[in-house]
Design goal:
The structure holds two protein chains of two kinds. Chain A is built from 13 helices and 17 strands. Chain A is an alpha/beta fold. Chain A folds into two domains: about 280 residues, NADH-ubiquinone oxidoreductase 51kDa subunit (Rossmann fold); about 70 residues, no CATH class. In chain A, the strands form four sheets. In chain A, strands 1-14-13-17-15-16 form a six-stranded mixed β-sheet, with helices on both faces. A four-stranded antiparallel β-sheet of chain A has the order 2-8-7-4, with no helix packed on it. In chain A, strands 11-10-9-12 form a four-stranded parallel β-sheet, sandwiched between helices. The longest helix of chain A is centred in the C-terminal third of the chain and has 21 residues. The relative contact order of chain A is 0.15. Chain B is mostly helical. Chain B contains 15 helices and no strands. Chain B folds into two domains: about 120 residues, no CATH class; about 160 residues, no CATH class. Classes of the chains: A alpha/beta, B mainly alpha. Chains A and B meet through strand 7, helix 8, strand 15, strand 16 and helix 11 of A and helix 1 of B.
Chain lengths: ~450, ~375
């Protein structure tokens, strides 16, 4: 095993309030079975899966109900045993509408995935393991939703030498990965080892922010057996962002517009690793995940294990509901999550948190002028110029915005957090990116 | 949405769920820090209390008069400009009030009311509103006003008042303008000309030395000298300025660069030629150096956004101000130095911006639009 890596500090970053005290001490609870699950079809980046079951068909828990729509796609599985219901619609996180298939539970919750355990995986063929990751319907569970088997299939010209497990969980309030690493320590580590075997690397690091000392301890105790190195990281948002995480642990900087594989690294979320282990060792595809239901308006905040397709309404009922009307309902964390306008949105494979914010905690945006205080410039982890770029976008000068690297913005929200003029900076950049992409597409056509 | 009937469980009576119609929908991030622009301006005003209080202590009624007049005139002009432009009034961000107080700090205590009026007009209308208001002005409004008044109305702008004459000084008017040959009299900073004017007139090493006795330097530091409202007591400004840094409103870069460069530059020059100018302590504590270092040069809108840029900005102001003081036509050069460097801020920022994290020469190939091209 290599020497302990020097943890490199990335430029910028902020220290928002922690908020994790609401839920980090409470063990995760398994959500009771619901009568109906509404499983959205398109939960992954890439092509949506195609439904293979019909209404009225009987399915077992973990049985495949939709097949991948291409290479960059994953299958879908039934969250419980029962009957297939209607094909209906649910709200998506970004205000869109998703097709969803109803699964009506028969109360028996019987497994029937058709996937046999691959034991011992240490001797299995790497292609077989990779196919199992694909068959398990596993996507990036930290929020990215990128099919895991594609990430584990870098092109042959890219030499991968490091696997990094992302246990940073730098967003305030979220504690799902924290509880996962505490309660399923071996599963996370074994999953990382399996992923490392698929990639054929022997350098494996797990990055964990220091605000989770018990998780760091638990992981350190168990990591030696797997040959994995635990790297405690300084607490700074966004330490869990892919490029910043790679830089902190390996000192390598991913080029703008590049991918981690360009510097020989593959990053996987801790939850994704646990899901890989379950798919390989148990033959269980991805049908449930750790999710934090939290926020000061929530009566009983905590971490839950929800099945995919659980409506947020049911999730909030389990948490005891709210003690006052919240100002915002957010899926994800407070910095990069999506505000919701409906309680019918469902838990998907990459829902890391259900967060409620009270009125006094919610930010309000104004269109005040930029006073050039420079705080945004000093906190941007990508070393961009948020303030000046936002003025360019307001003047619709997208050419200048592109030249100032707005396309490299990862929308982490650090700049917007510190802006005293309360300008909606991330929203400006999203608009600029959309406009620039539209122009690029139009140019390509000609 | 769903057609198949669901056997509804009776909801628990004591579980309250959010009403989705009352949820706010807006882009991420959903939390913000507590700082606001009015909050920042108010804190700067708070940190100006020590210098303002000192000026009232030294100049009594004159200080109160000027402070009130400039603040009210600045706020009035800002309100009028907003009305003319059809915008909602921006008085709530406290920037007009702040400009008013800073302008007052830059004015001699004996100026007539119409100087305050013209100064406020220049600061708010000419130097700020015409460019588009807060955040759009390239030059520090209070500095523009002071320089314009100095050049246009030299007489009234040297209306010094003897400090510590009580709240309502008997004279009410200032001593006459500077006389050129005052070298026979023993220099006294509380009557006659300002310390910097005396330094400009002094020609021999002995005269320069006479300006730097411990008593006189103490006067410069604690106050009791002739000068504008904010120029007499370096100590009061220092207290306000350090508070500004500790409260994280400004960073230490510009004050440290400006004062540090002044210290080194004047030390070298005064050692090299003692007949030219007094030493660093004199220069740091006299004139508008302290006020500029903490309150004027650090104006966010007109100073660089990068830390390296701030250091370049601050040191350049220090050098230019000292050059004007020592060799230039005016006894005080800080305001001119600020304006000169304001003009160079876009260039400084351009030089000091870092490349993005992970920038690579091949990154430029991704650009699809030519620079300067309109969509």
């Amino acid at each position: 095993m290599s020497l302990p890596p020097h943890v490199a500090r990335f430029t910028g970053g902020i220290h928002p309030m922690d908020g994790k005290g609401l839920s980090n001490g409470i063990p995760a609870r398994t959500a009771p079975l619901l009568e109906k699950y509404l499983v959205p079809l398109h939960q992954n980046i890439g092509a949506p899966p195609k439904l293979t079951v019909t209404k009225g068909e009987l399915v077992k828990k973990g049985q495949r109900i939709a097949e991948p729509g291409g290479f960059v796609s994953v299958p879908l599985h039934a969250p419980t045993s029962g009957t297939v219901g209607n094909l209906t619609e649910v709200p998506g996180v970004a205000g869109n509408t998703l097709q969803a298939v109803e699964i009506l539970s028969d109360g028996k919750d019987e497994w029937g995935s058709g996937l046999d355990p691959i034991v011992p995986w240490q001797e299995a063929d790497r292609k077989v393991l990779k196919q199992r990751v694909a068959d398990g319907g596993i996507i990036g569970m930290g929020g990215a939703a990128f099919p895991a088997h594609v990430k584990l299939s870098p092109p042959p010209e890219k030499t991968i030498d490091t696997l990094i497990v992302n246990g940073a969980e730098c967003e305030p309030y979220l504690t799902a990965d924290h509880r996962l690493m505490l309660e399923r320590t071996e599963a996370v580590l074994e999953g990382a080892a399996i992923a490392a075997r698929i990639l054929d690397v022997d350098r494996i690091f797990v990055g964990i922010e220091e605000n989770k000392p018990d998780a760091v301890e638990a992981m350190k105790k168990a990591a030696g057996a797997f040959g994995i190195q635990i790297v405690p990281l300084p607490v700074r948002y966004p330490q869990g962002a892919e490029k910043q995480l790679i830089f902190a642990i390996t000192g390598r900087a991913v080029a703008t517009g590049g991918l981690p594989m360009d510097v020989g690294c593959v990053v996987q979320n801790a939850g994704t690793c646990a899901a890989i282990r379950d798919a390989v060792v148990e033959g269980h595809p991805l049908i449930e995940r750790y999710t934090t239901v939290t926020g000061t308006p929530v009566v009983h905040p905590g971490t839950w294990i929800f099945r995919v397709g659980t409506p947020v309404k049911e999730a909030l009922k389990l948490a005891g509901g709210v003690r006052e009307q919240p100002a915002k309902l957010i899926l994800g964390g407070p910095m990069m999550g999506f505000a919701q306008s409906s309680m019918d949105v469902t838990v998907t494979k990459n829902t890391s948190g259900i967060l409620l914010l009270a009125g006094g905690e919610t930010g309000r945006y104004l269109s005040s002028p930029c006073i050039r205080c420079g705080r945004c410039v000093s906190v941007c982890p990508m070393r961009l110029l948020p303030g000046p770029i936002s003025v360019m976008v307001e003047c619709e000068n997208y050419a200048l915005a592109e030249h100032n690297f707005v396309m490299d913005c990862m929308e982490c929200g650090a700049c917007t957090f510190v802006c005293p003029a309360k300008r909606p900076l991330v929203q400006h950049f999203r608009r600029a990116k959309a406009e620039i992409n539209a122009i690029r597409r139009a140019r390509k056509k000609h | 949405m769903s057609e198949s009937p669901i056997p509804e469980k009776t909801p628990q009576p004591d579980i309250m769920l959010p009403d989705p119609k009352k949820l706010i929908l807006s882009a991420s991030p959903h939390i913000q820090c507590a700082d606001t622009v009015p909050g920042i301006m108010r804190t700067v005003l708070l940190c100006l209390i020590p210098p303002a209080a000192a000026s009232i202590y030294f100049f009594g009624f004159h200080a109160v008069r000027i402070l009130l007049l400039t603040t009210l005139f600045c706020m009035a002009f800002e309100w009028i400009c907003c009305k003319l432009a059809g915008k909602t009034s921006t008085l709530g961000d406290y920037s007009a009030a702040l400009t008013g107080v800073l302008l007052a700090m830059n004015l001699p205590p004996g100026v007539p009311w119409w100087i305050c009026l013209i100064g406020s007009f220049i600061a708010i209308v000419v130097a700020k509103a015409i460019y588009g208001g807060l955040g759009q002005n390239p030059f520090n409004p209070a500095a523009v006003a002071r320089v314009a008044l100095l050049v246009g109305f030299a007489g009234p702008m040297t209306a010094w008042v003897t400090p510590c004459q009580g709240f309502f000084p008997d004279e009410g008017k200032a001593p006459a303008a500077i006389q050129v040959h005052e070298t026979e009299r023993k220099p006294d900073f509380t009557t006659g000309a300002t310390p910097l004017s005396l330094a400009k007139m002094a020609k021999t090493p002995e005269e320069i030395q006479a300006l730097q006795t411990p008593d006189l330097l103490k006067q410069c530091f604690f106050g009791r000298t002739q000068g504008s409202l904010g120029e007499t007591s370096a100590l009061a400004v220092l207290i306000g300025g350090i508070a500004l840094i500790l409260l994280k409103i400004i960073s230490w870069h510009i004050p440290a660069a400006m004062l540090g460069t002044t210290l080194i530059f004047t030390w070298i020059v005064s050692k090299a030629d003692p007949s030219l100018t007094p030493g660093p302590v004199f220069h740091l504590c006299s004139g508008g150096m302290m006020l500029a270092a903490f309150f004027m040069a650090t104006d966010m809108v007109t100073s660089p956004t990068t830390r390296r840029g701030k250091l370049i900005f601050g040191s350049s102001i220090g050098i230019i101000a000292c050059v004007i003081r020592i060799w230039g036509g005016y006894p005080e050069g800080v305001s001119f130095a600020i304006l000169i460097m304001n003009a160079l801020v876009p260039l400084i920022d351009r030089i000091c911006y870092k490349r993005p994290f992970g920038w690579h020469p091949s990154s430029a190939a991704a650009y699809t639009m030519r620079r300067g091209e309109v969509k």
